[in-house]
Design brief:
The chain has 372 residues and is an alpha+beta fold. Helices cover 38% and strands 19% of the residues.
Length: 372
C-alpha cells in the first residue's frame, strides 16, 4: 500500500502512517500472555449498577456478584465443583482464532463486579434466599441483573477491543486489512449495543424505583430438571427460527433495536428459562416467540439461539462429555458466528436436539399470552 509517511494511517487510528502501520509486517507480534491478561482482566472495573437515586444506600464495597446463582443453580450442574463456560473460553491462536469451553469453579462462574454488597443482598434477596416462585416481580429481578451484567461486559470490552487493533502486528497486508475491518465492526457494534442497553435499563430503573416491576413482559419455560446450560444476558435477535429477518440493526444510535433478556437457571431441582422484554419491543419479540412455536423442537431451537447469541454460558461438564464430536463441533460453529463473525440467517433453522433442556410447561406473564 503506497501511502505518504506523514499521511493519516489507512486504519483510521488518527496516527500518522509512519507511527502506525508502516512496516507492520516486520513488527513483533503481541505476546499471547498480554492478550490473555487483557481478556481475563474482567474485574478491573467496579461499580454498583443501581439507579443513582439508590446510590446513597451503597455499602461502598463492590463484590463479585453472581449473574447466575451459585447455590441454587450452578451447584445443580457442577461436577466436582466445576462447570464449563464459553465466556472467556480457552482461546487458541496457533491455528486461527478458536474458542472452546473451559472449566471454571462455581465460586467464580458468572461473577461480575457490578453491585455493592448491600444491593446485591437486599435487591435480589427474593430470588436468592428462597425457592424461586414464578411472578412478575421475581422475573423482573432476574432480567434486571442480566441487563446490568451485559452493560458491565460491554463497557469492559472496550479495553479488549483497543488491544485487538494491534493483533495484526507481524501479519501480511491482507490480514491487516481484514483484522482492522473486524476491529472496526466489533468496536462500533459494542458502542451501539452499550448505548441501547443503557436506554433499556433506564426504563427498568424507573420501574424499580416506582415499584412497577409488573410492566415488564415475560415468557417462562418450566423444565423437569435443571438446564444443562445456564445463561444470563440481554440480546437483540436479528433472525427467527425459519431464517426470516426479525429486525435490522441500525447504526443510528437513536434507533434502538428490540432486545430480549434471557435467563436459564434452576431452583430446588426445577429448571427455568425466562425470556423478558419491555412493552416497546413487543412486536419483534412476539414474532420471535411465534417463530419458536413453529419449530419441531423448542428445546433444540433455544439451544441454538443461546450458542449463536450468548457468551455468558455455563455448561454441565457431564452433559458436554456425553456429546459426540460432531455435536460439539455443531455447537461451537454456532457460537463462533456470534463471536467472530455476523450470525448467518439460517443459523437457527436446522437445529439439533441435544437434550439440553427438558421443557414440560410454559407460562406467559405478558400481553402476548396467545403467542405460545
Amino acid at each position: 500500500m503506497k501511502l505518504g509517511r506523514n499521511k493519516p494511517c489507512w486504519c483510521g487510528s488518527g496516527k500518522k502512517y509512519k507511527k502506525c502501520h508502516l512496516d507492520r509486517e516486520q513488527q513483533e507480534p503481541i505476546n499471547q500472555g498480554v492478550i490473555h491478561k487483557q481478556i481475563n482482566g474482567f474485574y478491573s472495573q467496579k461499580y454498583c449498577s443501581v439507579p443513582s437515586s439508590m446510590s446513597p444506600e451503597c455499602s461502598g464495597k463492590i463484590i463479585k456478584a453472581h449473574s447466575i446463582s451459585k447455590s441454587s443453580s450452578l451447584k445443580e450442574i457442577a461436577h466436582n465443583g466445576h462447570v464449563l463456560t464459553t465466556f472467556e473460553g480457552s482461546i487458541r491462536f496457533d491455528k486461527g482464532f478458536q474458542i472452546t469451553p473451559k472449566k471454571i469453579g462455581i465460586q467464580k462462574a458468572s461473577t461480575f463486579t457490578g453491585f455493592c454488597a448491600h444491593h446485591d443482598k437486599t435487591l435480589f434477596q427474593p430470588i436468592e434466599d428462597t425457592d424461586f416462585v414464578i411472578s412478575k416481580e421475581n422475573c423482573f429481578l432476574i432480567a434486571y441483573r442480566a441487563i446490568s451484567r451485559e452493560i458491565f461486559v460491554k463497557e469492559r470490552a472496550s479495553g479488549t477491543f483497543d488491544l485487538l487493533k494491534d493483533l495484526d502486528k507481524g501479519k501480511k497486508l491482507e490480514q491487516q486489512l481484514s483484522m482492522q475491518s473486524e476491529h472496526k465492526r466489533l468496536t462500533e457494534n459494542n458502542v451501539l449495543s452499550a448505548s441501547d442497553l443503557r436506554s433499556i435499563k433506564n426504563k427498568l430503573d424507573s420501574m424499580l424505583i416506582a415499584g412497577e416491576q409488573g410492566k415488564l413482559n415475560h415468557i417462562v419455560f418450566i423444565l423437569s430438571e435443571p438446564p444443562n446450560i445456564m445463561t444470563s444476558t440481554a440480546v437483540g435477535p436479528t433472525f427467527d427460527f425459519q431464517g426470516n429477518k426479525l429486525q435490522s440493526i441500525s447504526q443510528d444510535p437513536e434507533v434502538i433495536p428490540s432486545y430480549i433478556m434471557i435467563n436459564s437457571f434452576s431452583s430446588n431441582g426445577v429448571g427455568y428459562i425466562c425470556l423478558s422484554w419491555i412493552q416497546e419491543h413487543d412486536s419483534v419479540v412476539s414474532a420471535f416467540i411465534g417463530s419458536l412455536k413453529q419449530t419441531s423442537s423448542v428445546s433444540a431451537s433455544i439451544l441454538a439461539f443461546i450458542f449463536t447469541s450468548i457468551e455468558n454460558n455455563y455448561i454441565s461438564e457431564i452433559w458436554w462429555s456425553s456429546l459426540d464430536s460432531s455435536s460439539k463441533e455443531y455447537l461451537m460453529n454456532l457460537y463462533s458466528q456470534g463471536v467472530m463473525m455476523p450470525t448467518n440467517s439460517d443459523a437457527l433453522v436446522n437445529t439439533k436436539d441435544l437434550l439440553a433442556f427438558k421443557i414440560k410447561d410454559t407460562i406467559s406473564l405478558n400481553a402476548c399470552a396467545a403467542a405460545l
